[in-house]
Specification:
The structure is a homodimer.
Chain A: E1 11-14, E2 23-26, E3 32-33, E4 38-47, E5 50-56, E6 65-66, E7 69-71, H1 78-90, E8 95-105, E9 110-118, E10 130-137, H2 149-164, E11 170-173, H3 176-179
Parallel strand pairs in A: 4-9, 8-11
Antiparallel strand pairs in A: 1-2, 2-3, 4-5, 4-7, 5-6, 5-10, 8-9
The structure holds zinc ion (2 copies).
InterPro entries (chains A, B): NUDIX_hydrolase-like_dom_sf, NUDIX_hydrolase_dom, Nudix_N
GO molecular function (chains A, B): catalytic activity
Pfam families (chains A, B): NUDIX, Zn_ribbon_Nudix
Chain lengths: ~180, ~180
């Protein structure tokens, strides 16, 4: 942030009074512009023993497989955002089963909230951001063609949970050094 | 957002190509400025059968009781943010037990992530944003002096869970009409 979004003057990168870290502060109107992590919400959708993945039609990671997920919008709940993204990317309307994976990626200031959700019928299709959508059993998952480390870790948990028959919440952190190993 | 934070030109409120909702778009450099929900992270800290509350020294809701929580910062995990806020507001260093309440407040575009956390000793003290900190048993909770609806709902769940001896994740939504009834 170079310019104040309220008044258009230049900003300075300084620690405000009563704070302990630098912020963008307007040199004219003195507004403090905070920057905060972004939420990405989506679903791990299953139909019987299969999980629904989307092949990305957009960058980054064009052509690789991911869970339907995207940036949460203002004015919606986390669950509403997860279902909206699942419709937009995979044209599926599953039933939510609860939060399944909470993943923090501090080096890019993102938090993923992936809800588990189930389909009554294998109805899905690629939305505009997907090349294709497909249901995979655990042994069919395209591990070598996954888009993101968070997708890999969430699917790894799901494969284990499926064999045990229980799906507790997973709290996952991803470090920058893990990113390269997707 | 009236001015572009990248170039200082004025912005327009329009639906970008390939999007379905209006964004702030720069009239000069054409950058699309997205606005997204903010995360507030904190802890429900217990010591034996007591819960730790803070009396707010700041607006809004000055003088009312709350859980230690605040805006998640860039560069930290959700758990790190929850522990940082607990230290800053209640000068307590509890052990995290896992995510306990995920609350969406869509009308102000906030998501609360409250982790359950336990203290080995009743060590706490007010930080700069608190007037006092205090441990309360379930029947001592100051229900008439709570700061936020999300605090009320989270504490209500905790009282029930304590009587049952199990603490599952709670997914909570708060509507604008509920806000008035804090
Ligand atoms: Zn300004
Ligand atoms: Zn611009």
């Amino acid at each position: 942030m170079t310019y104040c979004s309220d008044c258009g003057a230049t900003t300075e990168w300084q620690v405000p009074p009563d704070d302990n870290r630098p912020r963008h502060i307007c040199s004219a109107c003195h507004t403090i512009h905070y920057e905060n992590p972004k939420i990405i919400c989506g679903c791990l959708v299953t139909y019987n023993d299969q999980v629904l993945l989307c092949r990305r039609a957009i960058e980054p990671r064009h052509g690789l497989w991911t869970l339907p997920a995207g940036f949460m919008e203002n004015g919606e709940t986390a669950a509403e955002g997860a279902l909206r993204e699942t419709w937009e990317e995979a044209m599926a309307r599953p039933t939510l089963q609860g939060l399944y994976a909470l993943t923090s990626i501090p080096y890019i200031s993102q938090v993923y909230m992936i809800f588990r959700a189930t389909l009554d019928a294998p109805e899905h299709a690629p939305g505009p951001e997907s090349l294709e959508t497909q249901l995979f059993t655990a042994d069919q998952i395209p591990w070598d063609e996954l888009a993101f480390q968070t997708v890999r870790k969430t699917l790894t948990q799901w494969v284990q949970d499926q064999s045990r028959g229980s799906y507790p919440l997973h709290e996952i952190d991803i470090t920058e050094s893990e990113r390269a190993r997707v």
